[in-house]
Amino acid sequence: MSMNENNPLRQFFRRPAVHISLPSGGESYGPEDIEWPDEGKELPVYPMTAIDEITTKTPDALFNGSAITEIIKSCIPAIKNPWALLSTDLDTILISIKAAGGQETIDVESKCEKCGEEGTYGINLQVLLQSLKAGDFHIPMKLNGLEIYFAPLNYKEMNNSALAQFDIQAKYKDLTKIIDDKERMDQGQQALIDITELTMVVLSNAITKIVTPEGDVTENEHILDFLKHADTKTYESIRDFNSDLRENSTIKPLTIVCTAGADDPEKEECGHEYKQPFTLNASDFFA
Ligand SMILES: [Zn+2]
């Protein structure tokens, strides 16, 4: 029996404040990733503890992703392996942890496309949660006699890709300061090659299977090799197909109604309504 279970104060510990179901439906997780409650497919979400709050302010841990995995394990104990979480579920999980803490909105900065005024808009977390759905990854892309199957990346793959992107940015951060024209062009070309190679690696991780007339290919190494040796048009259409799938499972663009001039009787109220894309970045979501 753990110490918790002996403690008479146990009943006064934090309690789940929110219950969520995952947009992906959860079929792809093993018991080592998520322990589903007996009652069904809804996961209880607890508010953050004081320790969790400190974790959200630890730069190194935020940078390498370990802060987010610790917070998820603390607030949603049913999730045993946060690294396995699919990108389609991660947004729901992060937003629900904020909602469990009693927070109702998050602030989004936006610049009106009509009057140019910048404003801060509170976006309702419940509305965000309800707008999230998983894209349909069951339908393959058909191309040149092949059927290409995709899956959302998991948090480990997303985090690795973010770290690799950061490395490339750091490597070429002084690019524009190179005085010699040829040297600067050469380095610029190399930066583009590095970025394209990284994109190919990430894309190969997102492809689960390629069905050919001779049989199925699932080896990541062979899929990456295929992307590297495909012609540009083929590569780009595979890349764009995957982007579209991912776009269907991210948060829909927010509808913003410009409030410029609303509280100033001297000015005319703008009131322009426009859409702004919203992407949730795990590493600074709790900052
Ligand atoms: Zn405006």
Structural commentary:
The two termini are 36 Å apart. The protein has helices spanning 3-6, 50-55, 59-63, 66-75, 87-100, 125-131, 155-171, 181-206, 220-229, 232-247, 282-285, and strands at 18-20, 43-45, 105-111, 118-124, 141-143, 146-150, 207-212, 215-217, 254-257, 273-276. With 287 residues, the protein is an alpha+beta fold. Strand 5 and strand 6 (146-150) form a beta hairpin. The protein contains eleven helices and ten strands. The protein is globular, with a radius of gyration of 23 Å. It has two domains: 3-134 and 250-276, no CATH class; 141-247, no CATH class. The protein has a four-stranded antiparallel beta sheet. A two-stranded antiparallel ribbon has the order 1-2. The structure holds zinc ion. Zinc ion (ZN) binds next to loops.
